[in-house]
Amino acid sequence: MTVRSASATQSAILQGMTLQFGRPMVAIPGPSVVPDRVLNAMHQPMSNIYGGALADVTDSLLTDLPRLARTEGEVFIAISNGHGAWEMAISNTLKRGDKVLVLESGHFAVDWGRIAAAFGVEVETIAGSLTDPVSPAAVATRLEQDPGHTIGAILCVQVDTGTSVRNDIEAIRNAIDSANHPALFMVDCIASLGCIPFHMDDWGVDVMVSATQKGLMVPPGLGLVWMNDRAMAAYASGDLKTGYWDIGPRAEENAPHYYRYAGTPPVGHIHGLREALDMIDEEGLENTWHRHEVLARSVHAAVDAWSTPDGLSLNMTDPVARAATVTTILTGSVDTDAVQQMCEARSGLTIGVPVGAFEGRAFRIGHMGHLNPPMILGTLGTIEATLAALGAPLGDSGVAAAAQVVAAELANPGAS
Length: 416
Ligand SMILES: Cc1ncc(COP(=O)(O)O)c(C=O)c1O
Description:
Helix 3 (about 55-70) crosses helix 10, helix 10 packs across helix 11 and helix 11 (about 285-305) packs parallel to helix 13. This protein is α/β, with parallel strands linked by helices. Strand 6 and strand 7 (about 165) form a beta hairpin. It has helices spanning about 10-15, 35-40, 55-70, 80-90, 110-120, 135-145, 170-180, 230-235, 245-250, 265-285, 285-305, 335-345, 375-390, 400-410, and strands spanning about 25, 75-80, 100-105, 120-125, 150-155, 160, 165, 185-190, 205-210, 220-225, 315, 325-330, 350, 360-365. The protein is built from 14 helices and 14 strands. A 7-stranded mixed beta sheet has the order 2-10-9-8-5-3-4, with helices on both faces. The chain has a 3-stranded antiparallel beta sheet with strand order 11-12-14, with helices on one face. The protein folds into 2 domains: about 10-30 and about 285-410, Aspartate Aminotransferase, domain 1, CATH 3.90.1150; about 35-280, Aspartate Aminotransferase, domain 2 (3-Layer(aba) Sandwich). It binds pyridoxal-5'-phosphate. Pyridoxal-5'-phosphate binds next to helix 4.
């Protein structure tokens, strides 16, 4: 066995007494905190998988998940992570030789394109930046140059978890319409569903993919794909279907309930997802969206307060384009690894590592799902204390700034 030696900073951080005793806090952009109610709901003996109560729960999920996405379309449940949902979406709607247009805005749309490429689909990318949302005008311009409609589908994320950008899905749909282009519009809401507004039918989204481990507050394990009538029509003419991902048998009317899962149902996850959707219903989806907006603004206020020219700053400078579920924080001269390691080893707080081009120069705070002021203010306070302990350059108190955002909401609920 090879034992790697830790750097001097690492060993200093890992040595000595810690304050981490207590419930650990995971503030990464998924998997997010799973509520005890969901954990308890999942903790059940195995039941009859062929019918009975479990089949009723499945039926209720197939009714409620479209409601969550604000669509009259259908939903399919895969036993997978988000990559599986990507694959299910591609393999059920496209044909060999099709072209997809990937709208880059960070990491994840491009990765989705790679899955399409593995199926022999031609992939073209509208290059994006790490600090801007997708430009609807650029989408319209490209589609206007495709009078023969060779582009079969457009792939985009609502929130990119790497950059923490929020794309304007409605504006992109308007751009597609302005070019009068029939391509299927496919949107990844893996880091946004159940957290920020999404109106699948009103925004003309044909295929939407998500997964359970972020805003839906269930452990990783279920990939979800929603399809409208146009996408179902594309299924009929598609030729990339594979045994497990094929939605055909899952969609069969009057088929046994376990067909919906292409085999043995994921019993625990089914009960967990049911409980999570009940919790969202109890809060009220609009209230859930609002809570996420307020808590996200408190994070943004904290980072703005911490900011110094040589220290931390928000990756997304335009407030309109900031995700309400995750924040990418550039670290300037601050040692990113030391912040992460001290937060985790000394205080029991896990913050998100950077992805792709942000390696070594950013960390991320996930703020989605089961989250309230004590959790977010505690997270920000712990990061602030860690930055101070490391001697990082700090402007003002981020916690004080975040508390002001929360205070404004407490004083005037729903007004901000
Ligand atoms: C926006 C987005 N899409 C897709 C994925 C991939 O999901 P998974 O890791 O569950 O396969 C992620 C994962 O973080 C994501 O944030």
